[in-house]
Amino acid sequence: RLQKWVLREISNFEYLMQLNTIAGRTYNDLSQYPVFPWILRDYVSETLDLTNPAVFRDLSKPIGVANERHARDVKENFEDPTGTVDKFHYGTHYSNAAGVMHYLIRTEPFTTLHIQLQSGRFDCSDRQFHSVPAAWQARMENPVDVKELIPEFFYFPEFLENQNGFDLGCLQLSNEKVGDVVLPRWARSREDFIHQHRKALESEYVSAHLHEWIDLIFGYKQRGPAAVEALNVFY
């Protein structure tokens, strides 16, 4: 499989799905759901220029330090002297059941599962997945939010639409009603977002750097000294 990928006989998407499967990740288990990387950092331009390396996230760093400014805090957190638990950089995880429901809140059965998790109602609107640019902004501003993506971001436009008309409330600051997911400016429609996002995943830049992210999630930087050095230790 690795050979096929290196020779570009299979796509980046296919290779990531195979790695997820080998790692025991499956659509049938929300706590071990397939995990995909955030690959872009430009959600504000009118057009997405995939020939420009600056539009891409640095795939060699965990999402918690995608913003350089967080690296110092994350390092300091690791020095926790209490000694009661093993040291870690992040108290939450890049992939968990709540995160999957967060992204798929508009799609059943995830809507019902989300409501059950929140004791019978929707979570407060500001905490919901309401905008792709805002979700990236949260990664930039909040080192505690370390959710990576799920495969649906690369093939399933329907999850971005509130097709069932669920009442997801209003955002506190703008009083704006939460409905369909707000898309980046460069996306003309949900289908266009998925199409361009998938194109970004298969781009030259990502093909050259994807192995760095794979090392963090599936490879030798998951634990031990390499994980500590890469700021990649999870609770």
Automatic annotation (TrEMBL):
Family annotation (InterPro entries): BEACH_dom, BEACH_dom_sf, BEACH_Domain
Domain (BEACH) ranges: 1-235
A GO BP entry: intracellular protein localization
Keywords: WD repeat
Pfam families: Beach
GO molecular function: protein kinase binding
SUPFAM superfamilies per UniProt: BEACH domain
GO annotations of cellular component type: cytosol; membrane
Domain of life: Eukaryota
SMART domains named in the record: Beach
CDD domains: Beach
Name the record gives this protein: NBEL2 protein
Organism encoding this protein: Atrichornis clamosus
